[in-house]
Design a protein that fits this description.
The complex is a heterodimer of chains A (410) and B (156). With 410 residues, chain A is mainly alpha-helical. In chain A, 65% of the residues lie in helices and 3% in strands. Chain A has helices at residues 3-7, 19-54, 70-79, 91-108, 144-164, 168-199, 204-210, 218-221, 225-237, 249-252, 262-287, 308-333, 339-369, 374-406; strands at 125-128, 131-134, 295-296, 299-300. Chain A has a two-stranded antiparallel sheet with strand order 1-2. In chain A, helix 6 (168-199) packs antiparallel against helix 9 (225-237) and helix 9 packs antiparallel against helix 11 (262-287). The longest helix of chain A has 36 residues, at 19-54. By secondary structure, chain B is an all-alpha fold. Chain B is 54% helix and 0% strand. The N and C termini of chain B lie far apart (91 Å). Classes of the chains: A mainly alpha (410), B mainly alpha (156). At the A-B interface, helix 1, helix 2, helix 4, helix 6 and helix 11 of A face helix 1, helix 2, helix 3 and helix 4 of B.
Chain lengths: 410, 156
């Protein structure tokens, strides 16, 4: 790989080094960075305001119109707060952990298609300053795998934060958190496999391009089940209520960030809310067509006077807001799960169901491609899945009976 | 590889942001450490015991099961993306792999590897049936006291 290829950093540019693509890259990085920070500030305010409304309170209303600058005020305040070093902490890892939490949160932004015109078979590229590019920071071929990798690294941030604090509550919180996050990562990955089956590509722009009408949205094309599994798994992955056992205040004080103060704490907070936004964006990209407008049959719900690429951004933001609102709604509505319920839901319900659903979809698609009799395919798949279900129920019975017999009381 | 440069640039920018924030806080924030402040936070109680070194084995089992599932996922993704080229053979290979995998998972569940917390026993509620019967109302169970002399007998 030569330097020219490395520097030719813009999509669809063939190997010639110019200043324009580099400037576009720098511009896009800056825009994404600022967007990430401002979006997070907005999200914190939005969550506080909406939860306040749902609980019959007013919520932040002093700083700026509707209290919209409250997050900025809080953030500024945290710059002036002492950074404490707990006596028993591991100083180096203690400082490293916030970086492991918030840098991956930023990086997820880079593969999210934020706009572009994907209608009528267009590929979502736009032309800026004579350069063909995408309204997303980068479109690497691994695409969605980068998101999974980043969410795995975020587990390290939380785990090491709790371990390095040298204190009981953070340690308990982080052990819980890592078990919870890896459990739901398995469900997340399996439901994502169903999307990849219908998309046939890992690139996020490719996944969006494939969802060019309502019936092609992966929400419909994968038969709704992977969507719901993914949504629940994402909520657990984000440690958001009702899965916020990581920072269950009543038992663990603040969970993994009990010992953090000042700016390190602010970085964890930033990561948490930025992950909420990016993961909602990932749900929109994977299942709801990202920047695609709603197309039913031949009719496209189009906003005429806005140019195509900008309209994509508008659709994207609308869909994103729906999910952000849903996450806040979850928080205001649902009580926290108990730990064994959390693990049972993840391992004994969502993982088997998403694995079974994936195999069902794979069988139907392979049957389609090879002209197998569809009735035979569906019936035999359902029979096999039923057998698997019975086997699983039998396993649950056996384990329950054994526990009863041993009288295990923890 | 050209698509990864913007991601690296963003990463550098994010790290710089974090480092600058730390530096700014160093300059702006006070630093007055004391023994009480830097002690592990336990809601005001002076910690007497070390944080636990050993954890319930269930956590390790979950970690190992996760690795199993990750391997399953690692094999599923290439098949899902390239299903057209792999065709029926790819499907049967994945199917066989998943069946073997599922059987081991079932065995793990049957051995109780994923059981958490105490056994949940449903309490027999027949003894409490009298307590929750609809006959018991505010008028039948609450004895009104203390109104003698204050409310006239035939005030209504």
């Amino acid at each position: 790989m030569n330097v020219v290829a490395l520097l030719a950093a813009d999509p669809l540019l063939d190997g010639e080094l110019r200043w324009t693509p580099l400037l576009i890259v720098v511009l896009k990085v800056l825009v994404i960075f600022v967007l990430g920070l401002v979006g997070t500030m907005f999200m914190v305010w939005f969550e506080r305001k909406v939860v306040a409304g749902m609980q019959n309170r007013i919520g932040p209303n002093k700083a700026g119109p509707f209290g919209i600058l409250q997050t900025l005020a809080d953030g500024t305040k945290l710059f002036f707060k002492e950074i404490m070093n707990p006596a028993r902490s591991d100083p180096w890892v203690f400082r490293l952990a916030p970086f492991l939490a918030f840098v991956p949160a930023f990086l997820v932004w880079s593969v999210i298609p934020l706009g572009g015109d994907f209608t009528e078979g267009r590929d979502g590229t736009v032309t800026w300053f004579g350069q063909v590019t995408r309204v997303q920071l980068a479109d690497p071929p691994v695409g969605i795998l980068l998101v999974l990798a980043m969410s795995s690294i975020a587990v390290y941030g939380i785990m090491l934060a709790g371990w390095a604090s040298g204190s009981k509550y953070p340690l308990l919180g982080s052990v819980r958190a890592s078990a919870q996050m890896i459990s739901y990562e398995a469900a997340l990955g399996l439901s994502l496999a169903a999307v990849l089956l219908s998309a046939g590509t890992l690139s996020t722009a490719g996944i969006v391009a494939g969802q060019n009408s309502l019936s092609n949205w992966n929400l419909v094309a994968t038969g709704f089940v992977p969507f719901f599994v993914f949504l629940v798994a994402v909520t657990a992955e984000l440690n958001r209520p009702p899965f916020d056992l990581v920072e269950a205040e009543q038992e663990l004080v603040g969970g993994f960030h009990t010992e953090y103060s000042g700016i390190p704490f602010a970085l964890f907070y930033l990561a948490e809310f930025m992950n909420t936004i990016t993961m909602s964006a990932i749900v929109v990209t994977l299942f709801l067509g990202g920047p695609q407008p709603i197309t039913i049959g031949e009719t496209t719900l189009s906003i005429g006077f806005i140019p195509g690429a900008l309209e994509g951004t508008l659709w994207f933001v609308l869909k994103l807001l729906a999910f952000l609102y849903a996450f806040v709604w979850f928080r205001a509505t649902l009580p926290r799960l108990r730990y064994d319920q959390l693990m049972d839901l993840g391992w004994k319900f969502m993982i088997p169901i998403s694995l079974g659903w994936f195999l069902l979809l794979a069988a139907i698609r392979t049957g389609d491609a090879n002209q197998w009799n569809p009735v035979v395919v569906v019936v035999s798949s359902l029979v096999l899945l039923g057998l698997g279900y019975l086997l699983f129920v039998a396993a649950l019975r056996v384990s329950a009976r054994n526990r009863e017999r041993e009288g295990a009381m923890f | 590889m050209s698509q990864y440069l913007p991601i690296v640039v963003l990463m550098v920018l994010a790290i710089t942001f974090g480092v600058l924030s730390f530096a700014a806080a160093k300059l702006l924030a006070p630093s007055r450490p004391s023994t009480a402040k830097s002690a592990p936070y336990e809601c005001g109680i002076v910690p007497t015991r070390e944080p636990p070194q050993r954890f319930p084995v269930s956590f390790y089992i979950v970690a190992m099961l996760f690795i199993m599932f990750d391997i399953e996922i690692v094999f599923l993704y290439p098949y899902a993306v390239d299903r057209g080229a792999l065709g029926a053979y790819g499907f049967w290979a994945i199917f066989g792999f998943s069946v073997v995998f599922f059987l081991t998972f079932v065995y793990e569940v049957a051995r109780g590897g994923l059981d958490w917390g105490p056994i949940v026993r449903d309490r027999d509620l027949t003894a409490d049936a009298a307590m929750v019967s609809p006959e018991r109302t505010a008028t039948s169970t609450v004895r009104r006291v203390g109104t003698e002399g204050r409310v006239p007998e035939n005030a209504a």
